[in-house]
Structures are given as structure tokens and as C-alpha cells.
Amino acid sequence: MRVYNFCAGPAALPQAVLTEAQRExxxxxxxxxxxxxxxxxxxxxxxxxxxxxxDLRDLLHIPExxxxxFLQGGASxxxxxxxxxxxxxxxxxxxxxxxxxxxxxxxxxxxxxEVHVAASDEVYGYRTVPAFDTWELDTQAAYLxxxxxxxxxxxxxxxxxxVSVPLVADFSSSLLSEPLDVSRFGLIYAGAQKNIGPAxxxxxxxxxxxxxxxxxxxxxxxxxxxxxxxxxxxxxxPTFSWYLAGLVFRWLKHQGGLSAMAAINQRKAExxxxxxxxxxxxxxxxVSKTYRSRMNVPFTLMDTSLEKVFLKDxxxxxxVNLAGHRSVGGMRASxxxxxxxxxxxxxxxxxxxxQQRMG
Length: 359
Description:
Elements: E1 4-5, H1 15-24, H2 43-60, E2 66-71, H3 74-86, E3 92-97, H4 100-109, E4 114-120, E5 141-146, E6 149-150, E7 155-156, E8 167-170, E9 187-191, E10 202-207, H5 224-229, H6 239-254, H7 258-277, E11 283-284, E12 296-301, H8 307-316, E13 319-320, E14 331-334, H9 341-358
């Protein structure tokens, strides 16, 4: 029996995708071999790769002057690869800190750039997004980096910042959860293991005019221009992860696209936050209501001594991976695209029952 999986990542995948991959595991489309065994430069895999990119372009309405890269190293490697590629002769970059991942991105960028913190909520424990009119933007910055959704702290922007430099965004935990105007960004990147597919892959969507001027000494593998010119195949790519991501893109299309997913995700988030807010303090979420994440819902119990009991009882009910990140504790329910409304309703029912038994 499959459980309801609320893991932050690697996260739940659509069951329909897993079933299709299972059916094709030994023999993809009757070819007598798995995708994992194909040459990445063979016609069959090239067709898989081309279709995956086209489906992603269709879902996000990606303009023609943007290149889509299927890379390795996860989002964490992008923390370095971005300044290597986007400083473009400048020394400074603006960073907005709203959680652990944006803070890590800034720390890594300091190896290559003078990082200017344009705004930060660190002193308050990352519970909100600093008001845009308080941001201190550096006129000499090469770009501005922010993280639209913070997986650990559960803080999500409800707007796209309007700045005069290329806007760079780590969409690892929210890409494909709703429609997005790609044209407002210089570069978007996202680790796959949330809404895209299995771990081992990172997507980069970059405007063409930002390619081709890397920091001296940048390894060839880290040059976006090389990756773009080689179709993300300068070296052997993570072929099976790429294939599975393509199946997810096709599944999203069958669900009605990103507008349909946004409506479903909003209903799931409202159900879970509604349960927390109606508990009279038994459950608590620390994030400002204006900036609560739709993807990652951290919460605590009024009586922290009940947390281990909560997690144990939840697992017995098939509700797994609800422990909060080790850095903040408590609980966290990640409710990405592949986490069904049925799963969220089951969690809400369990939470209400647990409160009745323990409250």
C-alpha cells in the first residue's frame, strides 16, 4: 500500500508517472532496453529530451529568447554557477534573504562576488518577506537573487520583484505549481526533486543575452553558453531523471496545465492552514499569513512534548515524512503538485482527531 508522503524532497511523484515508468522500465516503447541503458546521443533519447523541453515550454509559455538547460549538481551548484556566469564584468550582486536556502545562495556567491544583502528577515527568524519599499538595492549590482519559496521556513513571495537588473530566482520548491511570467526573469533555476521529477537534475531557464561572459577560470562544465550550445549534453546528462521529468510535464498537461494545478494547490493549502488556524493554538504556524507557503507548511504543537507521539501516530495512519527540518524542528507538510487533495484531507482529519484525543 502506498503511503501519503509529505516529504520536502525527494518528494512524492505522481502515481501515474511511476506506473508508466514501471511499465517502460525494461523496454521503452518496445525497444528492448530501458531509458537508463540508452545512448544519450541516440535518436530515441534525443526525441525524449526534445519532447520534454517542448512540454516544459508549453506549460510555462517560455519565450523563444530563453534557453532551457537540463543540468546536474542540483540547485546548490547553481549558487556558484550563477555568479560565475552573470557577473559579466561586474563585482557586486544583490541578494534577498528570506530563509536558509537564500542565505546559503548568498554565502556561496561570496566566493565570486561582493554580495550586498538588499533585504533580510534573518533577525526575526525568517517569518515574512521584508516590504519591498525597504529593500536597499545596489545600483552597481549585476543581478538580484531571491528565493520565491523557502522550503524550510515556509515563506513564499506573493509577488515578483520589479528591479532594473536581471532578476534571478531559485524556484526549486514552487516551479510548475502555478502559472509564471518567465519574461520577467533573467534566470530561473529549480532542483527537480519537488515538483519536477526525481533528484539528480536541475532546470535552468536563462535569457540568451546573459550567455557567453563567464568569470575567468570558470570550468567549461559551468558555462551556461556551452551547455546551451551542446543541448545540455556537453557530458552525459542524468538521462533517467530527464525522462521522468518529461513524464511529469506530460502529466501536468493532462491535469489541465498550471492554472488548474494552482487552483488545486490553493485548495490544499487553505484546508491545511484552516485546520491549524481553527485549532485554538493547539497547532501553530509562525509565518505571516500574507507570505505563507502553498508548498511547505511548517507547524508546531502547543505542547512540544507531544511531537514524537504525533509523528508516530501519523506514520501508523500512513502519513509519513512530517518531521520538520532539523534546523527548526516541529512538523512540516510539503504539499507539492503530486500530493493529492485526498492526502491533505487525510492529514487534516488526523490532526483534528489527534487534537481531540490529546487536547
